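Q: Hi! First time asking for a complex rather than a single chain. Here are the components, and I think there are two in total. Is that enough to go on?
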Amino acid sequence: MTVVKLSIDYDAFEEGKRIETEIEQLSNSPEAAAVSSLTIGDWGQAYENSPEDAIQALVKHSASFPALRRLFIGEMGYEECEISWITQTDLSPLLPAYPELQSLTVQGGTNLRLSQLQHDKLEELIIITGGLGKNVLADIAAANLPNLQKLELYLGVDNYGFDGGLEDLYPLIEPGKFPKLTYLGLKNSEIQDEIAAALADAPILDQLETLDLSLGTLSDTGAEALLASPRIKGLKLLNLSRHYMSDGLIERWKKSGLPVDVSDQQKTDDDDDWRYPSITE
Amino acid sequence: MPPAEPLIVICNPGDRRSEGIQLARSRLGMPPALLIPYAGLLQGQPLADLLEQAMQQHLDELPGQRQAMQQQLPQLAQVQADGLREQAGTMQQRNGQPGLTELAAQGRDSNWRSGPAAPAPDTIPPLLRLESPGGSFEIERALIALGAPDAPDADDSLHPYGSQPDLRPLSFKAAGVLKDMPGVLHHPSQWFRGYCRLLARIQREAGQLLPAARWTNDPGEIAAMTDKRRTQQILAAAGVPVPRPLRGSSGQAPVDYGSLRELMLSQRMHRIFIKLASGSAASGVIAYQLNPATGAEVAVTTIGVENYITRPPVYYNSGKLRRYTDPALLAGIINWLYRHGAYAEQWIPKPGGSGQSFDIRQLVVAGRACHAVARVSTTPITNLHLRSRRMTPAEAGLTEEMQAQVRQTAEQSLAAFPRSSVAGIDVLVGSTGRTYTADVNPFGDLLYDVEYHGCSIYEWEMKQLPWRNLAL
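A: Yes, that's all I need. Here is the structure of the assembled complex.
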């Protein structure tokens, strides 16, 4: 079990260091055969460059990483690159190259595609973006992932590339689409109320253990729909954290006795703004 | 303990800084510092008068310390200016205490000025200490007035860029009637000019009044530390690692929004911090990014703007970080910053997991790193005013080795200011483990509830700052 992260910071990239070289060096190292989890962080000024070369190198050297089960493409904080500015590419070529892969996490939605999303063993797909394009949602809807247990999508806002709507999400929650799915996250959305209302009575709830609608703009409107639904009673966790629900609704959730996370309430008013003098330290 | 030298602090009496110093001195059994109010100086009172008042006040308020003060008073005796002796004589008549005239005579007899040898115990010259002038709008207004083109005392010798005129300056009269609008950045460049003029005057008067006194931080160096353009030049010249400044191939710095963007693209430096040259406390700081592929821009800043139809916008310090992507708005803010003097440098990604980042405020006293705080934030701007969380460097995840490197970088930074002995240095730790100095804060020692060897900051400073330990 070896966990590795490769990353090229700004200065290193300017000095000519390249992520594909790092991948190649890792593949030639004695530890390569034991790498079970590989994270590709910043591949060098990711607001300008896609991870195309990293993907090609990972495909080319896949035989050197027989133990690889978890792959994360684009793990970087805002200190390295705004999530909404991370340039991605079509990551599909990775999947046939790693038939034993169990978990794929992607961060960044610009130019992201998963055009041939087929994999027999993939259990987990997580896509973290500031805005997910509806073409990617269509890629996922067309996917063949018979073993998928967890699907977690950070949908984001239209300013950063979310150009879809409910109609693009419905195909993902059709029963039978992902027969083994137990964790569904449709989160970090500016249409979180609509999503909550659409999911409240969706048959897919019957197979889920976790429904994750956190990090978005969920208000009392969406929460009422969920509360009224008998289908949520079978969930082991309903994650609604970081929300805009009222105190009254939070109280009702608490009284419901349901396993729900209503932490991190956001305030809608602007009272939190304050001003400070300059010369104080 | 050898007799402590008298301490004269120029400050806003009653603020947390002056109170903290007095508390520390009392705990250490030292006589209280003499506090000289900025307000009095800015009302035009001579330093000599204010010093006398401060001495008198101590004798009136602390009769129990009369004996201690009497022991202290001879040590203040370095008066040379003839005009001052008369005033001092009046004081002697008033209270029957030894006056400055006699003290001056004793001072002249001392061997202090003849060489670096230790002075006799009864003639230890005083320490002079400047504190932050912040925290009072009246002081801010008076400094902006003092920076006016028609101000009576226009000694710009300590201003690092004093010959460059301030844009659209306020007259002495107009500045004097500015209204208090909390957080508003009234005229930062004129404020800085006024502050430099005040520093020059204090230096001049103190030099006449107390020629043997020593400064904990030299007024000229305080001016240089307060101007980030000058600070970074001094640090770079001393070989201290600093974030790379944004400059063209022939060394030219940006002058406005347009040239800033051009230089960012031509120098391939797409993520920068822009700082108001004379700002502190994250005042006028922008974390700015330009996407070379799309031309999009994102700025995270404390600067808030109020726009009006009939008059120029008002810029203020918002305690809530703001995010701007609108080019027109950003051009306005950045152009305003550059009109008041600005400095742009490479954005060093700060370390930290789970969406948080931090830097280290490292205090250095008398050449040695002491108290340190990690300022942890979920935003790119970590100042404590923005409700950042405080941790110890170890809690923030820094290894012993990295902490040692931070301390060394901080010590090296203060050493670049050879006539200063106290500063709070902001040290960045890059993702590759390199350390960089981002700021040198001459008044950056106001850290609460941090101890070093069992001492609060002021206790530590009072123990470390006898004249013989000063960076001279």
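A: Chain A has one domain: 2-261. Let me know if you'd like any chain examined more closely.
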